[in-house]
Design brief:
This protein is mostly helical. It has a single domain, classed as Four Helix Bundle (Hemerythrin (Met), subunit A), CATH 1.20.120. It is 74% helix and 0% strand. It contains eight helices and no strands. The longest helix has 40 residues. The N terminus is likely disordered.
Length: 206
């Protein structure tokens, strides 16, 4: 009987599933971040307040690590969170980039390189999910690249605002942006062998 006892969801190293994997503080933080996207668009498009929009976007980018840290620190890692968190990051980044390109506050070539990478990764992940291949977890390098870009993008926006230190924000945008681009594309390339392995495993089960 003892060998049949299942490991409780709160045990270290076990991802919560079912409803236990939905109602967690990290997932709540991620949902709140997504809920702030319309606020960001309102500040930028309707109010034309670049600095306020940049500050909000920067805060949303900063919280990218918060939910992950809470999940690990308080044993609230969940299967839902592993999908929801990177999806929220990707959606936030894509929406912000499109809006800021329309605003004219970011170099188009920079935005295009980031958008191509995010769209490719998103489409490949969706395709693998649709055919039944196991989910590929986000790597540390991938999270680092996204984190840097989530700082660079609002800095580009703030760099085109009317604040006194706009030049400093523009400099910071490149300081975060170039490494973020390089790291994110290296991370994307690193997913290739992992995806191949997942596909082989799927074929062996078929």
């Amino acid at each position: 009987m003892g060998s049949e006892t299942s490991v409780p969801p709160s045990s270290p190293g076990v991802s919560r599933t079912g409803w236990a994997g939905v109602w967690t503080l990290p997932n709540l933080i991620t949902v709140v971040r997504l809920g702030c996207v319309p606020w960001f668009l309102w500040l930028l498009v309707s109010q034309e307040n670049r600095m306020a929009a940049a500050l909000l976007l920067g805060a949303l980018g900063a919280t990218d690590w918060v939910d992950g840290w809470i999940a690990r620190r308080f044993d609230q890692v969940s299967e839902v969170g592993k999908v929801l968190d990177p999806t929220a990051d990707r959606l936030l980044l894509v929406v912000a980039l499109v809006a800021i390109v329309d605003d004219g506050s970011i170099p188009i070539w920079f935005a295009v390189i980031v958008l191509v990478r995010e769209v490719l990764i998103g489409l490949i992940a969706l395709l693998l999910l649709m055919v039944g291949v196991r989910r590929i977890d986000v790597t540390w390098m991938g999270k680092t690249g996204t984190f840097a870009l989530l700082w660079a993008v609002p800095c580009f926006l703030a760099g085109q605002s009317t604040v006194t230190a706009a030049w400093a924000f523009e400099a910071a945008a490149w300081i975060f942006g170039i490494p973020g681009l390089v790291i994110s594309w290296l991370a994307a390339w690193g997913y290739v062998p992992v995806a191949r392995l997942a596909i082989r495993e799927w074929r062996s089960r078929s």
